Amino acid sequence: PAEIRRLIKELEKAQGRGTTMVSVYVPGKQAQLNRMTKKISEEYGIASNIKSKETMQLVRDALRSIGQVLKGTKSIGKNGLALFCGYDVARGKQVSFELSPPKPIRSPIYSCGPNFEVRPLTKMCNSDPQNAIGFAVIGGEGTLFAVLGDSGVPETVKTTSVRLPKKQSKGGQSAPPSNVSVFNARKAYVTKTVEELNSLFFDHKVNKTKYKRFVFAGPGPLKDKVAEHPKLLSAIKNKVLKVISVAYAFEAGLKEAIRKSESLLHDSQGFWKKQLLQKLFNQIAADTNCYTLGSTDTFEALESGCAETLLLAEDGKYKTVICEKSLVDIAEGKISSETEEKSVQTSVVFHTASQRDLRAKLKEIEEDKSLVVREITSFVDWAWENAEKEHGVKLVLLGCKTPLGVQFAKGFGGIAALTRYPFHSSAGYENTAQDDVEDSSSSSSDESDDDIADIFG
After folding, report:
1. At the N or C end, where does the chain have fewer CB atoms within 10 A?
2. What is the largest CA-CA distance in the chain?
3. R_g (Cα) of the chain, nearest Å
4. CA angle, corner 210, sides to 208 and 216, nearest 5?
5. Strand bridging mode 109-113 / 291-293
6. Are 414 and 407 in contact (CB under 8 A)?
7. Residue 87 — pLDDT band, cuts 50, 70, 90?
């Protein structure tokens, strides 16, 4: 999933010293949770043997944080639990992450080092064939075998081609041998296609299908003959979702088959995100105002609490500037040594849509003596960490490989939101107010013109 891949990037960016970055993977069993809780407690005691006092304290802080989470976990999901905690040198603070993995954790892992241990997560995020759907588009000119995974982008496994003789030759009924050759050629082609299916869609080493479900499609009756063929393995036959009639073969037929089978794929993540994008487009078409498009309105809806679901392209280019605002007047130098730690408390966040906006905002911050830039990060990273926690907004990251994803990224800048109620931007109100002023001034000028006409009339 896009969210997990984004988190992996965050984890990979975190850099620590020595053994200060602690990673823990707990399988989805209560006994494993209890064992790991005991393990962390033991490691906390062992950490006292670390020679460097600074490293020892950082390691113990991370272990204490993870231990508190484990002790507070009353029940654990079937996929288990992954925890990461450590002091990030680049950020200058302790960072911690907690998540339920996309797939079950098979064995417990405890790791401490200069980086977080993300290889198990990365392996989980690689496309899992067992969750994919196998497609076979069978036509009179050949067959296309493809796989549709969570990304929503089909991958071609193999393409075969064939030249079948026409059903009717010259001479009509005077040439019966021709009909026999057509029948035999089509029968051989169907048998060959079934053999390809058994080879490509079934793993004979482990004796199970490679993919979760299957869809057969094609413009003619050949697809039905393949689906009903006695040589087709029962393991595949039992997992056929549907046999679909399409107008085309090969790639065009595959696209049509995917579109026609969407109602059967409602539990796939790619289909769910496509439905969410479609909902946004429907809101735009109906002009409900229960949405925002582009950075300006979406940032405003996020800050005002109007946004309910934040939609972001996975590779969004927007930036977030995180500042700290002093509670005392820095310009007048009123910070004393006693209040210095308490003075810098309030975080101020600015979102920028372009490099020009970022430069302008940084210049503005530099002129404002009460603000100090703490961090400049991507808006996607900021939203991943803060959107739900600070604003109660659900974040959905969208890939840019599907046609709808490309349309979202290029047409709307890769940022939009579905709102809780109709949203009206403050810029719209300002424009309306300005229009009212212009209308009133124009109407008054019209009246004065009429008065002058009356006087000089």
Report:
1. C
2. 110
3. 31
4. 110
5. unpaired
6. no
7. very high
Torsion, Cα of 364, 366, 372, 373 (10° steps): 70
Least Cα distance to 215 among 152, 141, 265 occurs for 265
Spatial CA neighbour of 81 closest among 101, 64, 108, 97: 101
- Residues 285, 311 contacting (CB under 8 angstroms): no
Q: Look up tokens 């498009």; give the residue.
A: 293
User: What is the helix, strand, coil percentage profile of the chain, to 5?
Assistant: 45, 25, 30
Token code pair at residue 256: 């049509």
* CA contacts within 13 A on the Cβ side of 318: 25
List C-alpha distances in Å: 326 to 334, 340, 347, 374, 377.
Answer: 10, 9, 9, 12, 21
Q: What is the mean pLDDT of the chain?
A: 80
Helices (H), 201-249: 222-227, 234-237
**What kind and span of H or E run contains 125?**
helix 119-125
> Other C-beta atoms within 10 Å of 34: how many?
12
Question: Is residue 415 over pLDDT 90?
Answer: no
Rounded CA separation 405/355 (Å):
24
> Is residue 312 within 8 Å of 397, Cβ to Cβ?
yes
Q: What single DSSP character describes residue 171?
A: T
The crossing angle, in degrees rounded to 10, of helices 53-72 and 30-46 is 160
**DSSP conformation class of 327:** S
Residue in this structure with the two tokens 């972001």, named with its chain if needed: 312
pTM: predicted TM-score of the whole model, two decimal places: 0.52
Pairing type for strands 213-218 and 240-245 reads: parallel
Specify the amino acid at residue 46: I
